[in-house]
Amino acid sequence: MKTMLSNDFRSVVLNSTPLIDVRAPVEFEKGSFPHAINLPLINDEERHEIGVCYKKYGNTEAVKLGHKLVSGVVKEERVKAWSDFIKENSDAKLFCFRGGQRSKISQEWLSQSGNDITRFKGGYKAFRSYLMNEIEESCTHFKPIILGGRTGSGKTILLKTLENSIDLEGLANHRGSSFGRKNTPQPSQINFENYMAYDLIKKLDKGMKHLVFEDEGNRIGSVFIPKNFADYLSKAPLIVLETPISQRVEITFDEYVIQAQKMYANNLELWRDEILGAMHRIKKRLGSQRHKQVCDTFENAFDVQIQSGSLEGHKEWIESLLREYYDPMYDYQIQKRVEQVEFRGSSEEIVEYLSRKF
Q1: C-alpha span between 200 and 138 (Å, rounded)
Q2: Is residue 144 helix, strand or coil?
Q3: Which one of 53, 96, 139, 295 is the catalytic residue?
Q4: Is 139 noted as a catalytic residue in this protein?
Q5: Interval 324-338: pLDDT, tens
């Protein structure tokens, strides 16, 4: 059998190499890598049994039990799943947690079935360490620029037009506000960091010396930007996107009503509950009276939508929230960072400014 090992993690990232993660599902759910599929050598129940055996009788007996549990038809099914994936992804690589027994056994069984595959030297742990180190080291290889602006100004829209941008909100699957939850869950902290590292490595490999990020703080929903990286971004020059309130209402309306309702097409009551839940989360800052007013406006708009199909009424509560909640909060924060502001302008003016700067 060819014992093919590799720790060329950089090429894995740059080539978006397909990966077979043979760890148990419970391990995979805590975090894995982009382009990885979970095809475990042992499932959660088997892992638990083997772990109990290991504690009682040691490694030799645990390995024996593992071979007993994964034998016959069970073994054939798992080898077939790996083989089928390799047939569709000839450049795939294999890993377990530390690059030890599980990935070695999987590699051996694949070789016996006529499929050779390279496994990670050091496994998941080594690749994860590499990615986290790349995030830390990246701060010495580029200069950040932060794109700020009031809520609804179109920062994410502009960011997506820039080749040298990294959309942290997109990686976090969150819109970055109390109303930013999506109907699909956010990634685990580990997955967020791994995807972030992939994006950084690919951008820097293209020779980009400046990278643009949206103004986020250090937290996006339930995930955190690694501390040293967040600190580095916090000192960066700030470019402020200025957009008229009418346009901001339209942008917010499209994102939080039009697009959001498409995801709840068969259950608008659930969307309604999500919006009211977001409003409840900001009740303290809004104040009881304004909170009641904006909730009543929303409920009226929702009732009109149900009766007539018209969505226009939603723009009223959106504008109220922008003016009375988000704008004062943003203006207060930006005043504390006024010395960092390098440029202000429309989307077109910012694109022109950045093209001159780079």
Answers
A1: 7
A2: strand
A3: 96
A4: no
A5: 999 999 999 999 999
